[in-house]
Amino acid sequence: MDINAFLSKAIIEFEKWYENDEHRNNINAYDGKITKEYIESLTNNEFVDFFYEFVSEGGKIQSGGYRTKNLFREYLESNLESFKNFILEPFSNNFNFDNWFNRINEFNYFGIGIATIYLNRINKDIYSVLNNKTLKALREIGYNISLTKNLKNYKEVNEIQIKFTKTYSFIDDLYKADALNHFLIGTDKGKQLLRDNIYKEFIDDNFEQDEIIEEIVEDKELQDQTKLKKLITDNQKSKKETIEINLKTYKRHNYLMALIKKYRKYTCQFCSTTILKENGEYYIEACHIKAKSDGGKDSLDNILILCPNCHKLFDYGKKEKIKHTKEIYSVRINGKDYKAEM
Description:
Layout: H1 3-18, H2 22-26, H3 36-41, H4 44-56, H5 69-78, H6 80-88, H7 97-102, H8 112-122, H9 132-140, H10 151-167, H11 174-186, H12 188-216, H13 225-237, E1 242-245, E2 248-251, H14 252-263, E3 275-276, E4 282-283, E5 285-288, E6 303-306, H15 308-316, E7 319-324, E8 328-333, E9 336-341
Antiparallel strand pairs: 1-2, 3-4, 5-6, 7-8, 8-9
């Protein structure tokens, strides 16, 4: 999937939606209020009221914390000075972002989502919002990023979205970059764009790979693993976009994925599952270890052949202890170790 091509198309629709959505009206909702001078001018009661409202209405960016807002008020009243000091830190000339971010969880009911919204309200040109919506949207359009809200992911999101502001003229700040996330996964039009482009492309690619496998399954040359691997290696180097098989044109990418599936014997590299379809063929999926959007290549040492369950586990699970060489890929996902020969 060409992420830039999809975004160029999606942003045209996003701009139309944005002009009539409350996100446009809320972009300057806290102007003059989330400043060092204003916050320091508040009495203790006013400070509690202000941040109680801010959390209750989700900073007018995400859904408000209605279920926990009263608990937050009680917590705030009991921890006023430490929270106030924390809130004022980002205005300091020697603000240590990493340290601040890693201390967010010290303050009950003031999670990473609302904390990064607060930063975005301080400066929407520097600070991205990191919440579930952010991570889900970026994953859906093809970025290889986990769903964990941590410092590493924040920096990845921030880098991606700052790139948006430099690439697409309408996305001129990180508030709009966040609004784009909402548009893509929170509106009917955005979801339709994903279905018509990204999801459809995944399905179409799998159909084409299956068709290619039907064409090559009887090829005697490809029964030899050594010859098959050489063909894969040769195609990895090719600059061609398409390839012709029996007078029919296919995407070279799909040809390569079909060859790798055959080389891996249509078997999941994590759990060794094979899925036999009614027609006698096998179903399996190809998965990039390093996403193409991050510079990953269509190559034997960057492609895992996985069953659908392991594919989703790889995409959405918490990954740790990663080792990736040309020979092996090993990873711990959700506390369980997996190893695949490459």
